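task queued by scheduler; priority normal; single chain, no ligands, no partner chains; default sampling; output format set to C-alpha cells
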Amino acid sequence: MIYPKHSTAKERMRLKSPWVFGMMVLVCLAGWGLVEARAADFVFPSIQFGMDTSDDPADVSVLLQTIFLLTVVTLAPSILILMTSFTRLVVVLAFLRQALGTQQTPSNQIIAGLALFLTVFIMMPVGKQINDTALQPYLNEEISQQAALDNAMGPIRQFMFKQTREKDLALFVKLSETPKPGGRDEVSLFVLIPAFVISELKTAFIIGFVLFVPFLVIDMVVASVLLSMGMMMLPPVMISLPFKLMLFVLVDGWNLIITSMIDSFALG
C-alpha cells in the first residue's frame, strides 16, 4: 500500500484501517466456507433414548439384572468394609500409629493398603468356598443366578457369625422388632451386618488398649525422669519416641501384631 509522501503515522493508520478490515472479512468468509464444506462431508452421530414394548419377559429380566449388578459394584467398597476383616485391621493399625506417636508414619495410604492385602489373605478361604460353590457352578450354567447368590452369601454369613458376639446380635434383633429367630438361617443380613460391625469395633478397641499400655508406661517413665531433672520445658514425646521405636523393633512388633490379628480371626 502506497502512502502520501509527507503523511503522519496517524494518517497512515487511518488509511490502512479499511484495508486491514477488508482482509479480515475475506479471511473469515473463506474460513466459514471451508467449515461448511467439511461439515457437508462429515456425518454427525445421533443418540436416542427411549422405551419400546417387548413380548419376551426375559428382556425386562436382563435389564433388571444389569441394574442390580451396577448397584452391587457401586456398593462394593461398603461391602468390603462392613462384611470382611478390614474394619478390625485398619482400626488396630491406626491405634498402633497413635500409640507409637509417629504422627503420619506410616501414612494413611500404607495403613489402608496393608489392611486391604491382609483382608484378602484372611478372607481367602471364604473366597475359595464362594468360587467352588457359587461362581464356578454359575459360570458352567449348573445353577441359577439366585442359587449362586444364596451359595455365595453362605460362607460370608458363616464368617460374620463367628466374629459376632451374641450380645450384639441380640441387641439388633431387639431393635428391629422382629420375632426371635430360631436359628442362624433366619437372621437377616440387615441385622447381622451392624451386629458384626460393632463387634469388630469392640475387638479392635480391646486390641488397641493392649497396644497402648507398654508405650504409655514408657511415656510416664520419661515424663517422670524429665520432671525430676527440672526439664519441664522439654516435651516428653521427643525423648520417649526413640525408646518406643527401639522397643517395637526389638520385640519384632510388626510380626507380633500381624500374627495376633490373623490368629484372632482363626480362633473366632
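post-processing summary
- DSSP finds eleven helices and no strands in the chain.
- The radius of gyration is 35 Å.
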